[in-house]
Each structure stands twice: as structure tokens, then as C-alpha cells.
Design brief:
Elements: H1 11-15, H2 17-27, H3 32-36, E1 42-45, E2 60-75, E3 80-88, E4 93-99, H4 104-109, E5 115-125, E6 128-132, E7 135-139, E8 149-150, E9 159-162, H5 171-181, H6 194-199, H7 205-213, H8 218-249, H9 262-268, H10 276-289, E10 296-301, H11 307-320, E11 324-328, H12 332-346, E12 363-367, H13 373-385, E13 388-393, E14 407-413, H14 420-427, E15 435-440, H15 446-452, E16 457-461, E17 471-477, H16 482-497, E18 501-505, H17 512-520, H18 525-528, H19 539-548, E19 556-559, H20 565-576, E20 582-585, E21 598-603, H21 611-618, E22 628-634, H22 641-651, H23 655-666, H24 692-708, H25 716-725, H26 728-736
Parallel strand pairs: 4-6, 7-8, 10-15, 10-16, 11-13, 11-14, 12-13, 14-15, 17-22, 18-20, 18-21, 19-20, 21-22
Antiparallel strand pairs: 1-9, 2-3, 2-5, 3-4, 5-6, 5-7
Helix pairs in contact: 7-8, 8-24, 8-25, 9-11, 10-11, 15-24
């Protein structure tokens, strides 16, 4: 039997079952190679202390600090005990709290003046930052023998590596595990072609791994980082370059609009002229559609920049050429909305074959999972006979039963909400692979587009159509200044008095079933003092409170994902028709919902949403000629990172700027797996925002390597690295990009 290569050795053989289990479950580390690529997040200098004032809230941290004082308090009439220890770094202080029986050991060991490493989750209590029940390991002369002592001298230099850790496995325990596997680094297979490595002056991979985990100097860290970043960027770009190369070999039917056909008739009846941006992007798309290879294009545009118009014109061009076009939307609400707005824009052109319809027209059908049987049968018949040139639907379009006459173009709205299998299944419904246009309203910085969507060509719409109004955004600190919140509700009433409408967005639906789950998970009484923030605000309760309180007398309705599709559609129709003043909703309204008369939006617990999500939500107001207003309500204190994030959203309407901020705070997620999902990243060293030059250079090198040797026959090391990066799921993700 072949010997297992050293880097593929399972961790449980080397580290023992319990440690390996925690590593697998919480850090997704299974083999020696995984652990060697689990790099330190940062390094502490021996003798220096962590800056406590800069700790991020709600994150697991490891800090090196000195104990300033320790006090035991009693509560519950003397029945409960709490140990409070203050640690300091000279510039800031941080509170540690221990409860009940857990106070005796730290009280004995953490004496004023002693130094230690502390690990735990940063929380807020009584407006002060604290770590509740942190684990700790004493340092240097204070360290006792045993498992919880850290022998700093085992680290060669003056730099202590601090690893991304998890509950039950602190940074110092990970460091010990790394020591056990470090000798295997010598057997690491180098993915970089030798000429490339030498040409750019990189250290060999085994040396880079050694230097990143056990650096003697800061220069060691720099050497290692430069090299390891390049590996990640290059291997990823090779995967994408091979994808593009393979796609370039596929056949597709060229689709050119017929002169005097449907597209010309549609353009002639438009009540406005297209923006310069729309003209330019349309030309790029039409040029792609006219080739005999499938188009793979990403259309990104600011909220409200007119992407749907550009996509519709591309769809009409395909219908003109005798084909059919399908638009795939992530939710029923959005599919119905698209169907409504497209049939309105097309008028009699959307009634092909019907009495009063235009001769040049075609049929536009809607297909969703909740349609009644007769309507569904008719829609399926219209698709298979080719009677319907355009179909708009949810993933119901992908089911086996759905057959097309000649599918020429697939438009996917809000790319990151679709699974890869779904896009692939829809592609398989054409006689030849159909052209693909992916739309997203989440602006993506160029580097991210090169990394996440590197197999798609990119078009950007950055102009807003004429007549769009600016949106003013403000942070409402409800806890610090309750009168600001009262004023927010007054502003909503003022907008309604002017004949406009408003949205109120909450993070949660809220119902008995959900409440029961929350109650079950309540913490014990003694820990209640340090319990996390209150549960997020819910649509159902908030709507009730507003209707009885500050918005009494207004027509308030709710909308959320758990409602029946018909009920959702009815609410949206009433809101669109102006029969509802205030719609209290979850993020189901985040994309595509278009009610030009809605001018105000209040986002409750705004700190619980991501930056890009807030920007998306805000794009629902200011869609008409009246100016929009967005109020971001939060309980978070002024100095918190959450407030800084909200201030950034309030300060700019530039989606590209915000997506940079979002990425810097959220890291990249697994750019290959669920694009932007925030799960463990396959990029551990590379940051797509800061390493633009590395990514661009790696892309160039990758293109020339793949052009010369598409199957990487002469680069076995690179092939091995690709196999490791593209485990089966990711391979499919790229295949179906």
C-alpha cells in the first residue's frame, strides 16, 4: 500500500482524538496540510502588550496583558459570587468576569502584576467591554508547569504567533499542535513553476511555512507572506483561467436582433432615452451574443441604475433572432415584480398572439412554484411550443418538467442567491449552451470581480437614470438619544402627510414558534448579567407597537418570507397602489422591489445587517422624483465598530466604496465556495482588497501558463495544488460558474 503523503496525514493520528475533533468541527482543519496552512492572524512581540482599546466587539480574541487588580463581589443576597479582574496594557483596561465555582482558580492564580495570555469573546456590559469566563495561560516567570502554561522560550524569536482560535482551542494550544506537524513542512509540494518562483525571487514553500509559523524577525514574516499570498492568488487564477479556456471551446448559437423586429419596436416606444452607460453596456452584450461561443457576462450596477432595462433589451434581441430568453429571480416576490414591470414596459408587445397584441410581439409568461395547476400547464405549453419568447420565474424554471423550444439566453438576477446546480440545470435546457448574463446590484470592487467572478467578463453601470432623487441617510442612536427615535417616527408621519409611503425593516419575523426557541436557549440566572444583547426586533411585534403608538391612524401592514405567496403578492400590490402607508418588513424587500412613491425607510437594529445589505435596502427609497430618507436605528454605543460601520453607510451613496468597507470588515468569505458567504476562506493570506497588484499579476501569469499548457501536463505540483483547492464542491462551483 502507498504511504500517505506527509501533508495528507489525518491530524487525529498526530494530535489525538479530542484536539483533532475540535479542529475539524470548528476550524475545518483535517490534515497536516490544513494545519500548516492555518496561519497566525498576527504576532505579539515578547515583552509588549496588546492594545486593549482596539479590540473588536463580538469576536474571539487572544490578548497578552497584565493583571491590575482583582475583586470578588457577591449578589443574590450573598448566594452568588462574581470575580472581576481588570487587566491593562498601559493604555487601556479590560474587565474579565468569572462566576460561581469558576472563580477560585483564577482568583488564586491571577494576582496583580502577573502577565498572561487571555482568550475569550469580547462583549459589552454596562457600556464597558469585557471578557466573560476567558481561558488564560500565564507567561514567562509567572508560568507554572502544566497544560495552561506557555513556554515562550520554545518560540525561537521575540515574536509570539497568535492563531485564529475557537472556543475550546486557544491560540497557544494551536501553536503546540503546529509544533508537532512543522517537520512535515519539508515535504510540501511547490505549486509555483520554478521559472516563475525564481523570476519573482520567492522563497521555497517549505521555508515560507517555517517562517510564517516560527519567525525570528519581522523580515521572516514578510518573506513568508509575500510567497504564500502569491500561491493563493496564482492557484485560484489558474483555476479560473482554465475555466475560461474551456468555456471558449464550447459552441453556441449566435443571436443577432432582426432589423425592424421586436427590439426596434420596443426602443421606439420608450418614453426616455437610454443613459450613456446603458448604451455602452448594451453594445458589449450584443457583441457577445453575436459570437458562436456562450457569453458569460456579469452586469453590475448600482441600485436603480437600470440593469433590468439593459437585460430586457438583450432578451428581446434573442427573441428577435428566433430564440427564447429566461430570467431567473431569487424570490417569488421579485419574480412577480419583474413580470409586472416587464409586461408594463412592453405594453402590447408583451401580448404576442393575443387579440389586440402587436404583430411583432411575443408572449411573456411567469412561472413560480406556487402557481395554480391550469396556469402552470398553460405556461409550460407556451414554453415548449415557443409561443412564449420570454419567461420570468424562480427556481421552478429549473424543474425537469420545464422544456424550452429554443433557449438562447439565461439572465440570472442577484447571482449570489443562486446555487450553482440551479444555474447549471437551466443551462442544460438549451439545444446548445445558452448565453449567460448575471446581474448583481451589490457593487463588487474590481479585484473581487477578478477573484470571485474571474470566469465572467464584467460590465459596470455606474450612472443613475435622470429623474432619480438623492437619498439622505442618518444614524439614529436610540439608546443614547431616545428623542432621536421619536423624531424618526415624526418624520415618517410627515412623509405620509405629503402623500408618500414608508418602509420599516426589522431583522426578524417574530412568532410564537421563534419565541419558544429563544426562551429555551436563555442563559442561567447567574450569567444573565453578562448575557448578550437583547434579541433582534421582529416585524410582527414592531408593526403592532407602531400601529398602536407613534404611527397610530396610519395604514400599517406587514410582509415577510413566511407568508403565503398570494398574501405577499396582495400586500405588495396594495403597497404599490398606495393603499398602505407603512410596510413593516424583513429583508424580503431587499432586491428589486420598486415603489417610486416610497420615500422613507427606517431600519431597526441596523447594526445587525451587513454594509452591502444596508445599501441594498436603502436603494428601495428615492426611486421617484421626491428625495429619499433612510434612518439607521441602533442601540450600539458610539465607540463601537458597529457604529463606525453605520456612520460609513450614512456618509456615502457610493456602493463600490461601501463594498470595500464591507469586505475589509467581513474578510472575503470563501470566494470559491458560496461566493461572499463569510465561511472559512480558501484565501487565508490574500486579502482581495489590499492585494490588488498581486491578483492582477497572478492573473496575467495564470493566463500565459494555461495558454501554453491547458491540462498542466508539465506542472504536476500546480496540478496537485489545484486538486487540493478544488475539492469536488468547488470544482463544480467553477464548472457551473
Amino acid at each position: 500500500m502507498d504511504r500517505v503523503p506527509a501533508l495528507e496525514e489525518p491530524l487525529k493520528k498526530l494530535l489525538g482524538g479530542p484536539t483533532a475533533k475540535v479542529m475539524a468541527e470548528h476550524l475545518d482543519l483535517h490534515t497536516v496540510g490544513d494545519l500548516l496552512h492555518h496561519y497566525p492572524r498576527r504576532y505579539e512581540e515578547r515583552g509588549q502588550l496588546t492594545k486593549l482599546a482596539e479590540l473588536p466587539l463580538d469576536e474571539d480574541v487572544t490578548v497578552v496583558a497584565q493583571v491590575a487588580d482583582a475583586r470578588v463581589h457577591t449578589f443574590n443576597g450573598g448566594r452568588g459570587q462574581r470575580l472581576e479582574i481588570t487587566i491593562t496594557d498601559g493604555s487601556g483596561r479590560l474587565q474579565l468576569v468569572f462566576f460561581g465555582r469558576g472563580i477560585h482558580k483564577p482568583h488564586k492564580e491571577l494576582l496583580p502584576g502577573s502577565r498572561a495570555m487571555f482568550a475569550g469573546k469580547v462583549s459589552m456590559f454596562n457600556r464597558r467591554m469585557q471578557l466573560a469566563h476567558p481561558t488564560y495561560a500565564k507567561l514567562g516567570a509567572d508560568a507554572a508547569e502544566g497544560d495552561d502554561a506557555v513556554d515562550i522560550d520554545s518560540w525561537a524569536g521575540a515574536l509570539i504567533p497568535l492563531y485564529p482560535a475557537c472556543k475550546g482551542l486557544e491560540s497557544w494550544k494551536i501553536a503546540k499542535a503546529v509544533d508537532a506537524v512543522l517537520p512535515s513542512a519539508q515535504e510540501a509540494v511547490d505549486p509555483l513553476p520554478e521559472a516563475l518562483r525564481e523570476g519573482r525571487g520567492f522563497v521555497p514553500l517549505p521555508e515560507a511555512l517555517l517562517k510564517v509559523h516560527r519567525p525570528h524577525t519581522k523580515a521572516d514574516i514578510e518573506d513568508a507572506r509575500q510567497r504564500l499570498k502569491w500561491d493563493e492568488a496564482f492557484v485560484l487564477q489558474v483555476a479560473l483561467a482554465r475555466r475560461r479556456h474551456a468555456d471558449g471551446q464550447l459552441p453556441a448559437a449566435a443571436r443577432r436582433p432582426a432589423p425592424g423586429g421586436l427590439l426596434d419596436a420596443f426602443d421606439a416606444k420608450l418614453p426616455f432615452t437610454l443613459t450613456e452607460g446603458q448604451e455602452k453596456v448594451s453594445k458589449e452584450i450584443f457583441d457577445d451574443l453575436a459570437t458562436e461561443h456562450p457569453m458569460h457576462r456579469l452586469l453590475q450596477g448600482e441600485v436603480g441604475s437600470g440593469k433590468t432595462m439593459v437585460a430586457l433589451r438583450a432578451m428581446l434581441a434573442v427573441v428577435d433572432s428566433g430564440g427564447q430568453a429566461a430570467m431567473l429571480a431569487p424570490t417569488e416576490v421579485l419574480a412577480q415584480q419583474h413580470h409586472r414591470s416587464i409586461t408594463e414596459m412592453m405594453g402590447e408587445l408583451a401580448e404576442g398572439g393575443l387579440l389586440g397584441g402587436s404583430e411583432q410581439g411575443t408572449k411573456v409568461v411567469l412561472l413560480t412554484g406556487s402557481m395554480g395547476m391550469p396556469a402552470r400547464r398553460q405556461a409550460l405549453l407556451d414554453l415548449v411550443t415557443g409561443e412564449a419568447g420570454l419567461v420570468i420565474g424562480t427556481h421552478a424554471l429549473i424543474e425537469d418538467k420545464v422544456q424550452f423550444h429554443d433557449l438562447g439566453l439565461v439572465v440570472v438576477d442577484e447571482q449570489h442567491r443562486f446555487g450553482v446546480e440551479q444555474r447549471d440545470a437551466l443551462r442544460g435546457k438549451g439545444k446548445q449552451p445558452p448565453h449567460l448574463l448575471v446581474m448583481t446590484a451589490t457593487p463588487i470592487p474590481r479585484t473581487v470581480a477578478m477573484t470571485v467572478f474571474g470566469d465572467l467578463e464584467t460590465s459596470v453601470l455606474d450612472q443613475l437614470p435622470a429623474g432619480r432623487s438623492p437619498i439622505a441617510s442618518h444614524v439614529v442612536p436610540a439608546q443614547d438619544k431616545p428623542h432621536f427615535l421619536a423624531r424618526a417616527w415624526e418624520r415618517v408621519r410627515e412623509e405620509v402627510d405629503k402623500g408618500h409611503q414608508a418602509y420599516v425593516v426589522c431583522p426578524r419575523i417574530g412568532d410564537d414558534e421563534e419565541e419558544a426557541k429563544t426562551a429555551k436557549g436563555k442563559k442561567k440566572a447567574e450569567e444573565a448579567e453578562t448575557a448578550d444583547k437583547r434579541p433582534p426586533l421582529a416585524v410582527i411585534e414592531t408593526a403592532g407597537q407602531l400601529a398602536k403608538g407613534p404611527l397610530q391612524g396610519l395604514r400599517v401592514e406587514i410582509l415577510h418570507g413566511r407568508m403565503q405567496p398570494d398574501d405577499k403578492d396582495a400586500v405588495m400590490r396594495r403597497f404599490g397602489a398606495g393603499e398602505v402607508d407603512v410596510l413593516v418588513a424583513t429583508t424580503v424587500i431587499e432586491v428589486g422591489v420598486n415603489v417610486p412613491n416610497a420615500t422613507a425607510m427606517v431600519i431597526m437594529d441596523a447594526d445587525r445587517f451587513g454594509v452591502s445589505q444596508l445599501h441594498q435596502l436603502r436603494g428601495r427609497v428615492g426611486r421617484g422624483s421626491a428625495p429619499g430618507l433612510c434612518l439607521l436605528v441602533t442601540d450600539m454605543p458610539e465607540a463601537s465598530p458597529a457604529r463606525a460601520r453605520l456612520n460609513a453607510v450614512a456618509a456615502t451613496l457610493d456602493g463600490f466604496e461601501l463594498s470595500r468597507i464591507d469586505l475589509e470588515q467581513r474578510r472575503e468569505g470563501d470566494v470559491l465556495g458560496q461566493a461572499q458567504s463569510g465561511v472559512r476562506s480558501s484565501l487565508r493570506m490574500l486579502t482581495v482588497i489590499d492585494d490588488e497588484e498581486v491578483i492582477a499579476a497572478a492573473r496575467e501569469e495564470a493566463v500565459s501558463v494555461v495558454a501554453a499548457d491547458p491540462d498542466l501536463v508539465h506542472l504536476p505540483g500546480l496540478r496537485t495544488a489545484l486538486d487540493a483547492l478544488l475539492d469536488k464542491d468547488r470544482e463544480q462551483y467553477l464548472d457551473k460558474g
